[in-house]
Amino acid sequence: MVIDKEADSHSRPSSPIQFQLDPGSGLPTYVQLIRQVEHALRLGYLKPGDQLPTVKETVAALAINPNTVLKAYRDLETRGLAVGRPGQGTFVDGTLGKVALPQLAALRRTLLTWLGTAAEAGLDDDAMDALFSSALRDFSRSRGGSAGAPARQAPGDRRGSRGDNAEGVA
Amino acid sequence: MTIIDCARLGKRYGRSWALRDCSLAIPGGQFVALVGPNGAGKTTLLQIAVGLITPTEGTVTVLGCEAAGSPGALDRIAFVAQDAPLYQNLPVGDMLRVAAHMNQRWDPQLARTRLAELAIPQRQKVASLSGGQQAQLALTIALARRPELLVLDEPLAMLDPLARHDFMAAVLAAVAEDGLSVIMSSHVLAELERAADYLILVSKGRIQVAGEVDDLLSHHRLLTGPTAQTDKQAERMSVVHARRGGSQSHLLVRAPAADPGPAGWESRPVGLEELVLAYLREPGVAALPGPTADGPSRATIGPSKGVRA
């Protein structure tokens, strides 16, 4: 295949990770790329200093628009998670900032307790999902965040519009 | 720079118009998807843009200000027609030599490298290549001309899913590397959704929808709510397509992404395929760029432009 040949022609893969899309996720492509980097950071597949896959590599592997990759990288740069080095590529620069891992774990435990209570009350997975999504929607609305646009997006960001529900559960 | 700029463009064959009243200004550096039913006028529009046919009325310029079909334009545009025209009896290497002689701009290194990457032997006859390989060969010849604009007419039609993916990947990699603009007509909406910056929907010889994909997606929502309120909602917003059930209805409407929608209605964003299908079902509804206040590169969709069928 073309793509494998191309990857081989570079002396080694530029990044410890490769992007993979989930067509069933319903998430915009650039959000999927961002999520995958965040996820890899949390799980330790990516460390500060590591290079992210190059735009050309990603485009050739996934058949997506180069601007989609650039947009994802810009978002990561804006949030201090990555830094672009001209002529070289984009590199991991930070760690997943604001919320520390222990705090995330605690939040997750609270959520699991809630899920347990919901299950006892007779809710199935779909009912819990619907309840959570609707509560989250109301919550973001009451906080003044528009329902659809994740707060972290810069206004006027070209591909921002596709970022519906980009802020999911950690 | 606009890659195609046309005003009130029309093409008539005998008594019927293949294309009528087309006005467009497509900004450069983009991947433009041209979609529409068979016989809608996609090929006619592309052939006018590359200078293969002359319009009956209206004007068209390409790549800034070149007249379509002028030597200056031909040198900067590569066109791959629907059936990927290649000399079937020639070996691949000879096919490349013919192409090299027929074109002023030619990058032999690019052609050789690409064929090596594709593992297509130069001695093999064109006719014995697979459909995917023939499409890739035609693309290689087009790219070796180092075009600023690549025009592809239904390149995916005859390809299997893997070949389609590889073909799209090759085109997009060229976009990433050289920043060339692409216009591609296709029926394969799923592939276009991930690739396209800009969408043109042609229907019955007219341009029904034109705009940046992100703008289009962020200005349409799917609302689901009680059928009893449907007429009331339809009065206060522009509905592209409505599906009414006995008690629950779905409306694809034009509304900004930030609009939470009416109380009691669920509102969610739409995908490109959903959007295109809704417009195809309602040929009377159009979404065209509004007044271009800040230049043609920013096609805006004003809510006032919404037309209800």
List the helices and strands and how they pair.
The complex is a heterodimer of chains A (170) and B (309).
Chain A: H1 2-9, H2 29-43, H3 55-62, H4 66-78, E1 82-85, E2 89-92, H5 101-120, H6 125-142
Chain B: E1 2-13, E2 16-27, E3 31-35, H1 42-50, E4 57-62, E5 66-67, H2 71-76, E6 77-80, H3 92-102, H4 108-118, H5 131-144, E7 149-153, H6 161-178, E8 181-185, H7 189-195, E9 198-203, E10 206-212, H8 213-218, E11 220-226, H9 230-236, E12 238-244, E13 248-254, E14 266-269, H10 272-281
Parallel strand pairs in B: 3-8, 3-9, 6-7, 7-8
Antiparallel strand pairs in B: 1-2, 1-4, 4-5, 9-10, 11-13, 11-14, 12-13
Can you walk through the features of this model?
The complex is a heterodimer of chains A (170) and B (309). Chain A has 170 residues and is mainly alpha-helical. Helix content of chain A is 48%, strand content 5%. Chain A has a two-stranded antiparallel sheet. In chain A, helix 2 packs across helix 4. The longest helix of chain A is centred in the middle third of the chain and has 20 residues, at 101-120. Chain A is elongated, with a radius of gyration of 18 Å. Chain B is of the alpha/beta class and 309 residues long. Chain B has a 6-stranded mixed β-sheet, sandwiched between helices. In chain B, strand 12 and strand 13 (248-254) form a beta hairpin. The longest helix of chain B is centred in the middle third of the chain and has 18 residues, at 161-178. Chains A and B meet through helix 1, helix 3 and helix 4 of A and helix 6, helix 7, helix 8 and strand 14 of B.
